[in-house]
Amino acid sequence: MILACQKYLIRLLETIPGIEQCVDSEANFHNFYVHLPLLELPRILGSTLDNISLPIPNLKIPNTQAIKLELLGKHSAVSYQLLALLPLVNN
C-alpha angle 22/58/16, rounded to 5°? Predict the structure, then answer.
C-alpha cells in the first residue's frame, strides 16, 4: 500500500505495518489506477465496532535528530519564546 500524506508526516506514518511507501500528498499521482481516501477504508473493508482488532501501538516514533538552541552574542531583537526554552535545552 502506498500512503499519501502531508510531507511533515511521512517519517511517522511510514512506520505503520503494511505501508510499503509513504509519499507527499502534493506529488503527481497520474500513474495510479485506484485512489481511496483514508476515511473510506472502514466502509470498503466492512469494518464495524464488533470486528475491529484490539488497540495496539501501530506507530513507532522515528529516530529524531537532537537540536541545541544557543543564544550567541548580544542581539537587539530577542525572541523571548526561545529564551524561555534555553533552560530546558541546557539540562
Answer: 15
Predicted confidence band of residue 73 (pLDDT cuts 50, 70, 90): low
Instruction: Return the C-alpha cell found at 51.
Output: 470486528
Residue 90 CA to residue 57 CA, distance in Å, equals 32
* pTM beyond 0.70: no
Q: Rounded to whole angstroms, how far apart are CA atoms 14 and 3? A: 8
> Which residues in 6-24 are b (16+ Cβ under 10 Å) and which e?
eeeebeebbeeeeeeebee
CA 61, CA 13: separation in Å to the nearest integer? 9
| pLDDT, averaged across the chain | 76
Q: How many residues does the chain have?
A: 91
Is 91 a residue whose pLDDT tops 60?
A: no
